Amino acid sequence: MMDLAVSVWTSYFVDLSPEEMVDEFAAAGYTAAEFSDEHGFVMLQRAKERGLTPAEAGAELKAYADARGVSFPQGHLYLAVDLCADDAVEILTDWLDLYNALGIRSAVLHASGGRELTPEQRFDRWVKALVPLTDHLKGTELSIALENVGTTPNAEALNRLIDAVGDEHLGICLDTGHFHLACAAGQADYSQKEFIRRAGKRLIALHIADNDTSRDQHLMPFGGGTVNWQDVMQGLREVGYSRLFNYEIPGERRASLPVRRAKLDYIRVITKELFSDEFAENGSKY
Prior knowledge:
Elements: E1 6-9, H1 18-27, E2 32-35, H2 37-50, H3 54-66, E3 71-76, H4 88-101, E4 106-109, H5 119-136, E5 143-147, H6 155-165, E6 170-175, H7 176-184, H8 192-199, E7 203-207, H9 229-239, E8 245-247, H10 257-275, H11 277-282
Parallel strand pairs: 1-2, 1-8, 2-3, 3-4, 4-5, 5-6, 6-7
């Protein structure tokens, strides 16, 4: 049986304040969550309105969450940031200060933007932005986890970018749903397990999500999606992944609070199956 901390992206409770979100996870018995960029924006706006630094605002929420037994080992940086923009480093520095104060260890980032540029020009701008951002993290336990998205669809693209930056505060976030779509689109010709192998020790964050390859549906496993979950779990075991097992499932949040609370209970059933030795060896019985 695997033993990883299990979490759900806080955007699952996007309609709630950060404190209300913490209360919901605490009431459901969850001790960890991935901090969403929606709640990140709330906290940065709160800091601005109250004349606080991002770090001061983050420390206040961390104290609130700590008192209720909830932590944020992982967080998603500004989803729509243009990493090629002149102000990208300034914008993301505030986010990193907020997330460091929240106790986040893996800050997920999309290498995106610069659509008007050639691929190599875009790559160079990404490196130019990531160098000062990783320098800013020196002396902290926070690292940036580059996520596989349309502009970096496979392990090779992510490893190339990390190699070019050359900093220990940079790693990989595997989004299982994104990689499933990338394979269907011919952007990779290998399995989820092989992605994990190629990421290796650089794998520091997960977005566990399913889809049927028609679109990025962000579903729970064992529903309408077709991700090979046995493959995923075997890969995680093989590389000794030890960080957060995080569900990024906004496709499941289109429901009332009572239904979402019930789904959190069901996620425990799903996780028990995924983590079992029998599933790793034999896959699903159904």
